[in-house]
Amino acid sequence: MSHTRSALSRLTRSRARLGAAALTVALVATVSACGSDSSTDEPKAAAATSAESLVVEDPWVRGTDGAKDATMSAAFMVLDNEGDEELTLTGASTDVARSVEIHEMAVVDGKSVMRELDGGLVLSPGKGQLLQPGGFHLMLMGLTGPLRAGDEVTLTLELADGSTTEVTAPVKAFTEEEEHYHAPGTGDHEH
Second label for 143, Cα 20 to 30 Å away, from 11, 14, 74, 188? Predict the structure, then answer.
């Protein structure tokens, strides 16, 4: 009988040691997982987006007073890529127009024509692009109402990486003559 008690006592102690050993292993594993890799505890820096590298200066939108076609207008500005990587402006949107396209002026069959730019407007690192009358510009089509000098238009510029940036552009008076744009008061477009 005492032999059986002694065997039961040894079995109970062995189970207790085995349980304690398992608990120790589990605690060590948990502590190791919490403190072994400090880099996973630190927040990772978010990758810079194209919108963070894009600087927009001097935006403005052509007013529709006196325009031949008051359903369309154009937005102009200076776009600077201050980042280290190329970025591409792929589109834009605004509440004042049904659609916005990036347009360029090109010579086709000896005539200067305005057309949508395929593939977006690419900005090299450290470089800029002027969006201006007679050159690249954002074409606002299907205006929802007149644009008068002094109004403001909010444009959302869309970039190839999916990032966006908002621009508020004042509306300025502008004239159209012979199918292309002329800034008022400039003598550089005499006909």
Answer: 188
